[in-house]
Structure formats: C-alpha cells, structure tokens
Amino acid sequence: MTFNTPEWHPDHREDIVMAAADALETGYVYPDRGAALARHLRAWWREAVDVPTSPGPFAEAVTAAMRVHTPDKHLRLILAGTPSRDEAAASAHGVRRVEVLNRNVGLLELHHFDAPDEAGPALAAAMQLMAPTRALVLDFRAHRGGHSDTEGLFAGFFCAEPALITTFFERGDPVGRQMWSAAFVPAPRYLERPVIVLTSAVTGSGAESTAHFLQSSGRATLVGETTAGAAHPGRFVAVHPLLHLFVASGRPESGVTGTNWEGVGVVPDHPVPASDALNAALALLG
C-alpha cells in the first residue's frame, strides 16, 4: 500500500484496514486462521460505525476488532516508533531491581530483554551480585519479553550444560529453528540452589518462554498468576507510515514438553495473586 503523504488523514483508514487484512492473510503462522482473521477484519470495517478518526484510538479499535476472533495477544496495530538506544540504556536494559534480601535471598526484577550486546553486561553484573546468595527470586511480574537471543543467554545462567529451550516453526517450515541456552555466560552460573520465578497475568512472550523452560526443566518453581499466553513470535508490518501491525509468523514448541502455551499461558506451581507473590515466595524459602 502506497500513501501519497506520510501525514495522517482519516481517509486512510480503509486502506489501512485492507492492508492489515492482506498482511494477516499472507503472513500469519496458521494460514487458515490468518485467512479467517482477514475476513473478520474486512467485515468489521464494512459494518463498523463511529470508528475513531485519530491514529492512536483508531489503532486501538482495529486491535480490539481483531482480538475478538483470536487469543493471540501479540496481534496489535500500534503507532510506529521504537525506543532509542538512550531510552533503553536509561531502563538498564530491563534490569529494574537487584537486591539481597534477609536470609541471603537474592531478588532480580526484569522488565524486558534487550538485544544481548546491550543487555548482556547488565545481566552479567546482576548475576555476579547474585552469585553468593543461597536462593534467588526472579521477578517477572512486569516482564513482557523481548529479544530471543537474550532469553537464551539468561537461561544459560541456570543450566550446567546447553539445553534446548524452544523450537520455532515459521509458516510453511516443517523443520524449525532451535533456541538453546547459552554455552557461555559472562558471570557465574546459578546452579544447585533454589530459584523461584514470580509471574503475573501480564508476564508475556520471552518471559513466559523462560519461565516455562525453568519450570519444566525442574530448575525453578513458579509463584503467582497464570501468564498472558502470548507465545507466538513475529514481526511488525508497516500498513501506513504511522501505523505498524504485529503479525505472528511463527509458533514455539517447548524443548522440554513439546507444548505451546499460546492462549493458555504458563500455570504457576503455587497460584497466588501477583501482588502477594513475593511474600509467598519468601515464605516457601523459609
């Protein structure tokens, strides 16, 4: 779709909806579901009334219309633009809290995974500080995922040997691409000590994958809420200079269980409200 100007105009809305439908039909990981989503989206536009005319609310309306027909929580239309490197550095590349609590319990709170060349030093510094602790709590309650290579790097801190985390299958690819825990990590591994992962209903994507791997491999106990169920990786497609559509182009399969948590989430070993998860974890650790 080519627009005469990058500036927003309400007359662009129909073309955007049609471009989004085409992208789902040709790129969604499950061809039949992509075709169905495209049909629903086109039908929604034909029947919709009072569709917002400004880009932000319009994107939210389109997202809501698509999600009526799928549990895919990655699927969304958003305003274009990504955080700058300065903004990423200001967020410590996702490392929000590193603390040693009473009774020598480590607490590491992560909010996202930046690319490994940026996040690696921050994660290494955090894990170096956690090395002397007797147990570790990983707070993923606000963690929404991020770069898959950093997921593999972080998982490596908890594995004595490389382990298969996930195999990703792209649309039409029967072989898949494997993701393993890192063979080398830039700080001491955290082995043979208790690890608890705190989860919430917004824990998503790579955070879910990491939590599922640590749980299913017997390396960690999960405490909190069932996660978001946003498993499918994909890419953003520009359907307008100001609006990008995330299209799920792949599906994960656990290297441990062979399952996919899309739409159902990862169920904790000890279900409690997210707000109570840290206290519950500390109680489990004595």
Residues in β-strands, percent: 15-25%
Strand segment count: 12
CATH architect. name of the domain at 85-232 and 251-284 = Alpha-Beta Complex
What gross morphology would you assign? elongated
Helix percentage:
25-40%
Task: Tell me the CATH superfamily of the domain at 85-232 and 251-284.
Answer: 2-enoyl-CoA Hydratase, Chain A, domain 1
Strands in their spatial order, largest beta sheet: 2-3-4-7-8-12
CATH third-tier fold name of the domain at 85-232 and 251-284: 2-enoyl-CoA Hydratase, Chain A, domain 1
Radius of gyration: 20 Å
CATH class of the domain at 85-232 and 251-284: Alpha Beta
Structural class designation: alpha/beta
Q: So what's the oligomer here?
A: single chain
Largest sheet: 6 strands, mixed
The sequence of SSEs as H and E is: HHHEHEEHEHEEEHEEEEEH
Low-confidence stretches: 84-89
Provide the descriptors you would attach to this structure in a database record.
8 helices, about 290 residues, six-stranded mixed β-sheet, 2-enoyl-CoA Hydratase, Chain A, domain 1, alpha/beta, about 35% helix, ClpP/crotonase-like_dom_sf
Structure described in brief:
By secondary structure, this protein is an alpha/beta fold. It has helices spanning about 15-25, 30-45, 55-65, 85-90, 115-130, 150-155, 205-215, 275-285; strands at about 75-80, 95-100, 105-110, 135-140, 165-170, 175-180, 195-200, 220-225, 235-240, 245-250, 250-255, 270.
What does the model show?
Residues 74-273 form the Tail specific protease domain. One of its GO terms (molecular function) is hydrolase activity. With 286 residues, the protein is α/β, with parallel strands linked by helices. The chain has a domain at 85-232 and 251-284: 2-enoyl-CoA Hydratase, Chain A, domain 1 (Alpha-Beta Complex), CATH 3.90.226. Helices cover 33% and strands 22% of the residues. It contains eight helices and twelve strands. The protein has helices at 13-27, 31-47, 55-67, 85-90, 116-130, 148-156, 206-216, 277-284; strands at residues 76-79, 95-101, 105-110, 135-139, 164-170, 177-180, 195-199, 221-224, 234-240, 243-248, 250-254, 270-271. The strands form three sheets. A six-stranded mixed β-sheet has the order 2-3-4-7-8-12, with helices on both faces. A three-stranded antiparallel β-sheet has the order 1-10-9. A three-stranded antiparallel β-sheet has the order 6-5-11. α1 packs antiparallel against α2 (31-47), α5 (116-130) packs parallel to α6 and α6 (148-156) packs parallel to α7 (206-216). The protein is elongated. The relative contact order is 0.15. The model is unreliable at 84-89 (pLDDT under 50).
